[in-house]
Amino acid sequence: MKKWIQFTLNGEDVEHEVDVHKTLLKMIREDFDLTGAKEGCGAGECGACTVIMDGKALNACLVFAVEADGCDLLTIEGLAVGGVLDPLQVSFIENAALQCGYCTPGMIMTAKALLNDNPNPTTDEIKEGISGNLCRCTGYKKIVEAIEFVVKDQNA
Amino acid sequence: MKFVGKSVKRVDGIKKVTGSLKFVDDIKLSRMLYAAVKRSPHPHANIISINTEKAEAVRGVKCVITGDEFTKRGGLYLEDKNFLAVGKVRYQGEAVVALCAETEEIAQAAIELVEVEYELLPAVTDAVEGMKADSPLVHPDLAEYHWAPVFFPKPGTNISNHYKLRKGNSPEAFEKAEFVVENKFFVPHVQHVPIEPHTAVAQMDVDGFVTVWASCQSPYAVRQALSVAFDVPLNKLRVISPAVGGGFGSKAGTTLEGILIPLAKRCLGRPIKLTYSREDEFENAYVRQGLHANIKTAVDDSGKIIAVQNEFVWDGGAYTEYGVNIAKAAGYASAGPYDIENVWTDSYCVYTNHPVGGPYRGFGMCEIHFGIEQNLDIIAEKLGISPIDIRRINGMKPGGTTGTGEVVSTSGLMECLEQVVSDIKLHEKPVSNNPKKVRGKGIACGWKAPSMPNNAASSAVIKLNEDGSAHLLVSAQDIGQGSDTVMTQIAAEVLSISPDKITIRTGDTDHTPYEWQTVASRITYSAGRAVFEAAKDAMDQLIELAQIKLGIYKRDLELRDGYVVSKIYPDKKVAIADLAIGLNFEDGSAIHGPVIGRGAFIPPNVRNADKHTGLGDHPVVFWTYGVQGVEVEVDLETGQTKVLKVASCFDVGNIMNPQLLEGQFEGAIVQGLGTALFEELMLKDGKILNKSFVDYKIPTADDMPEMIIKFVENPEETGPFGARGVAEPAMVPSAPAIANAIYDATGIRLNTMPMTAEKVLAAMKAKNSKG
User: Fold this and answer.
1) Least CB-CB distance to A140: which of B10, B14, B670?
2) Is A89 on the interface with B (CB under 8 A)?
3) Which of A37, A133, A140 sits opposite B704 (nearest CB)?
4) C-alpha dihedral over B678, B683, B689, B691, to 10 degrees?
5) Which of A41, A98, A127 shows the shortest C-beta gap to B704?
6) Interchain pair B195, A138: CB under 8 A
7) Which CATH architecture has domain B458-601?
8) Which residues lie across from B134 on neighbouring strands?
9) What is the distance between the alpha carbons of residues A137 and B668, in angstroms, rounded to a whole number?
10) How close does chain A come to B246, measured CA to CA in Å?
11) Looking only at Cα atoms, what is the longest distance across chain B?
12) d(C-alpha B573, C-alpha B546), whole Å
C-alpha cells in the first residue's frame, strides 16, 4: 500500500508517494538517491543512518518514511549549502576526524543536532551525545576534538 | 621537505564529510538485480538434496544456482573453499544456494522457499580437540588440495598448517634453567566490525567481459581469485573498489564476490548486487581466529630469558585459505620483540566447524602477545624485578637476533619503552578517589612484520597534464588509513608540486596498476615506494628535456615549485607545464611526448626460511616495534574495568603525516581496548549467539581513554623517505597492557580475553575466598 506524503527535504518542498512499509532510510536512499546516510545495521544500533527531522537527530532505519509527512528533513547532502561546507564539516577535515568515512555523515548529523540543542556542550556531553554513533576507525578522539573545535570557534 | 612529514589534510575529506563519496552499496545501475543467499543452519552436515523449484517459480526470480555447478576450489594460500557449498556444509551460515531477482524483497521471499535436506555430522567445535586423531574431519579430502609450498597441512587430520621454529637447543636450555614459567592463554574469536558491511555488484556482458564492484581491500587479489575460480581470463575481468568503509583485514581476499559471478553468467548484461546484513557480517565475513596458547619461558636469575617453548593452536574455522598464514606469521614472531637464544615453537592452524577465520588487524600478533607479555610480567614478579627491567634486559636492540636468527639492524624498542614508562608515570602508584575502586598500571611491548609473500609487489603511474598538474594511479586502497593522502604527499614531494595539483585514482584493475593487496601495514612502505619511483621517473624525464631546453647539464637541475630549475642560477628555469606533453622547439618540431612516470617495487632480498627449522636471515622485510602503557580503574563491586589512560610509543620510521599517523594509533588503541574488555563472538556448538550490535558491543565514545601518543623515528632504509608500516602494530600491545594493569590493580591475572566485568569479579571473589 502506498501513501502520498509532503515534506521539506534539504530545504525543498517535495510530494512523494511511498510504500507505507518503507523505512525513511530506504526512501531517501532509493527514491531520492541521497546515499550519504548509510545502513550499518538496520536496527538503530550504529547511527550510520542518522538524519535530522524537525531539528532532532534520528536513526532513519527505525522510522517509517510516512512519518516524514509534514516534517522538515535534513540529510548530510543538505548540510553544505551552495557548496559552502558547514563548520562541522570543515572541522572534521581539519581535525582528521574521519577515516573510512562510512560513519562520518551520521556522526556529523548527530553532532549538528547536538549543537543545535546545546551550543556549549562539555566534553562529556559531546561523548555522551555521539555515543550512539559507532566508529571503528578513529577511536573517537579526533571526532570529539572536531566538535569541541566548532564550539570554541562559535564562542570566539 | 615541503609535504612529507606534514599534516596535509585528507584528499578525500570533502567527499566524505558531504556524504558524496559513493560506496558500493550506494551504486544503483540500470536493470540491476538483487541476490539472496540460502545459508546452512548447521555447523557440519552433508547436503542430501536441494529443491529450488518453488523459488524458481516466483515471479521476478531470474535464476537460482547451487554449488554443484561450480565445484572448483579456490583460496589465497591453500585452495580449500568454494563460494557455494559443494556436497557438505562446514559452518553455520555457509552459503548453499543463491538466487537473484528483480527486487530485494522478491529475492528474500524466494530464498525462503528453497528446501535443503541435510544429514548432520558431528561438529568440531574446539581446536585442541580437533587436533586429536579421533576427531571428525572437516576436510577429509585435504590431501587433494593445492597449497603454496611454504605451508604444511597434515592430510588425514584437521591441521591445515603446522609451522615449526627451532632455534638453538630449547630442550637442553630448559633442563639447565633456574626458573621456568609456563602458562596457558586463550583468545576467543572476535569480529572486525567495519561499519560498512561487505557488498558487491557483478555484471557479465554478452561479450564475456565481467565487471565487479566490490568493497574490497585488494582488487587485484579479488580479480585473481575470481579468474581462477570461474575461468575468466584476467583481461576480461575488471574489479573496481570505489571506496571501502573500513576493512581491518575483513575485506582482504575474497568473500561474497564469488557468489555473484555464477549468477552474472546466467543473467548476461544485468548487474547483480549482494549486500550483507549486519547478521551476515558477523556470520559470513571473516572473523579473527581463536587462539589456545601455551607459553613456557626459561630465565636465569638475572632475568635473562634463556629459552622459550610455545604451542599455538589456532581455531581456523571451516576454511583456512588465509588463516594458514596467520599461524605461520605467529610462529616466526613467537619469541616476541626479545633477543632469545633458544626458541622452540609449534604453531598449528586447525580446521573447526566455526566461522571462517581470516586476517584481522595484527595478523596473529595481538593474540600471541596477550600471552607473551603477561608471561613476562609473571616471570618478573617471581624474580623480584620490575616489568620495566625484564623488558630492558631482554628487549630487542640493534644487533640483536630474532627468533628466526635474523640479526636486527634497527630497533627503537628501548627508546619507546623509556618514553612510555615516563608518559604513563609507571613508577607512581595510582590511587582512586573512590574507595570502591582500585587503580593499576601495566605495560606491554609488541612487534609485527608485514606477513606477506616475499614477492608482494606494488606499482604506480604518474601522468603529467598539460597544465603541469598530475594524475597518480595506484591500486593501494584507502580503507580509512589515509593512503590516498600519503601517496599524494610522496608524489608531491618528489615532483615539488602542491598536493592539490595531484589527483589520485585507485582501485580499478582496468585502469590502475598492479598492487598485491592493501594489507600487512605495507601500503605506505611498498606502494609508497612505487609512487616515489614513479615520481622520480617522471622527474628524470622532465630533467632530460629541461637540459636540452635550458642548455644546462642535468646534474645541475632540480624540480622546484612547478619548475625545472638550475641549482646554480635559479632564474634559469622552465615550467613543468611546458615539458609535460613533450619539448617543443622554435622551428615547430617537438620531441618525447607526454611525460608518464612508472614505478614498481618488490621488497628487496626477502627470502624463504628453512622448511624444517623456520630459521632465516631475512624472512620478513622489517619489524615494527613499540610499547603501550595503560592505567585502569577496576570497580571492586562490579568487576568493571575502565581504561583511564593509554601511553603509546612506536618506532615508526620517518613520519609521513603526523595527524593521520596519530589517527591510526588512536583507532588501534580503542579497537584493542574493545577486544581486551568486552568483544567476543560467542560460540556454542558451532553456532554464533551474538550476531548483532545489541549483543556484540564495540567501543563507543564513552569508552575512549586519555591517549598520549609519541613516536621514535629510526628510518626504514628501503621505505619511501624512510617510512615503515605501523597501522596494525599499533594495536598489538593493547590487550596485554590492560591485563597487566588489571593485575597491578587487583592482583588477579586473567588468562582469557575478553576481561569482562563478570570474569574480573569472579576472579576477585575466588582470590578473596582463598585469602
Assistant:
1) B670
2) yes
3) A140
4) 70
5) A127
6) no
7) 2-Layer Sandwich (3.30)
8) none
9) 8
10) 5
11) 98
12) 8
Measuring CA to CA, how many Å separate A13 from each of A64, A71, B213, B310? 19, 10, 35, 67
B7 close contact with A: CB closer than 8 A: yes
**Strands B272-275 and B115-120, sheet pairing:** unpaired
CATH number of B30-121+198-275: 3.90.1170.50
Domains, chain A, ordered by start: 2-78 (3.10.20.30), 87-155 (1.10.150.120)
State the DSSP code for B715. -
Residue to mutate among B6, B8, B16, B17, with most A CBs inside 10 A, is B17
**What does the domain layout of chain B look like in residue ranges?**
30-121+198-275, 287-452+608-770, 458-601
Per-residue pLDDT of B84-129, as tens digits, reads 999 999 999 999 999 999 999 999 999 999 999 999 999 999 999 9
Write down the residue that cell numbers 631475512 correspond to.
B618
Nearest to A36 among B19, B243, B247 (CB): B19
**pLDDT (tens place) for every residue of chain A, 156 residues total:** 999 999 999 999 999 999 999 999 999 999 999 999 999 999 999 999 999 999 999 999 999 999 999 999 999 999 999 999 999 999 999 999 999 999 999 999 999 999 999 999 999 999 999 999 999 999 999 999 999 999 999 887
Residue in B16, B251, B644, B708 to test binding to A, most A beta-carbons within 10 Å: B16
The pairing of beta strand B33-39 with beta strand B502-505: unpaired
For the structural domain made of B287-452+608-770, what CATH number should be given? 3.30.365.10
CB of B197 within 8 Å of a chain A CB? The answer is: yes
B179-187 β-sheet, strand order: B159-167, B342-351, B305-317, B290-299, B179-187
Max CA-CA distance within chain A? 52
* B193/A140 Cβ within 8 A: no
C-alpha cell at B677: 574488555
What does the pLDDT look like over B708-730, one tens digit per residue?
999 999 999 999 999 999 999 99
**DSSP state letters, A102-134:** SSHHHHHHHHHHHHHH-SS--HHHHHHHTTTS-
What is the full DSSP assignment across B142-186? Answer: GGG--B-TT----TTSSEEEEEEEEES-HHHHHHH-SEEEEEEEE
Q: Across the interface, which of A104, A127, A133 has its CB nearest the CB of B16?
A: A104
Verify whether residue B728 is a known catalytic residue.
Answer: yes
Check residue B577 and report its DSSP letter: G
> Is the complex ipTM more than 0.95?
yes
B 696-735 → A contacts, CB under 8 A:
698-702, 704, 707
- Nearest-Cα residue of chain B relative to residue A108: B17
Euclidean distance between CA atoms A142 and A150, whole angstroms? 12
Contacts of B671 in chain A (CB under 8 A): 136, 139
Cβ separation B666–A139 shorter than 8 A:
yes
Find chain B residues with C-beta within 8 A of A33's C-beta. 28
Those residues with Cβ within 8 angstroms of residue B44's Cβ, 6 or more apart along the chain or in another chain: B88, B89, B90, B91, B120, B121, B122, B123, B124, B136, B138, B353, B686
- Measure the CA–CA gap between B723 and B552, rounded to whole angstroms: 33
| Contact (CB<8Å) B700/A131 | yes
Report the SS3 class of residue B660.
Answer: helix
- B195, B275, B655, B671: best to mutate for the A interface, most A CBs within 10 A: B195
CA distances from B457 to B68, B342, B598, B602 (A): 35, 34, 14, 5
For B150-181, how does the pLDDT look when each residue is reduced to its tens digit (9 = 90+)? 999 999 999 999 999 999 999 999 999 989 99
Query: Are B287-452+608-770 and B458-601 equal in CATH topology?
Result: yes
Torsion of CA B308, B311, B316, B319, to 10 degrees: 100
Q: How far is A126 from chain B (nearest CA, A)?
A: 9
Paired with A50 in beta bridges are A59
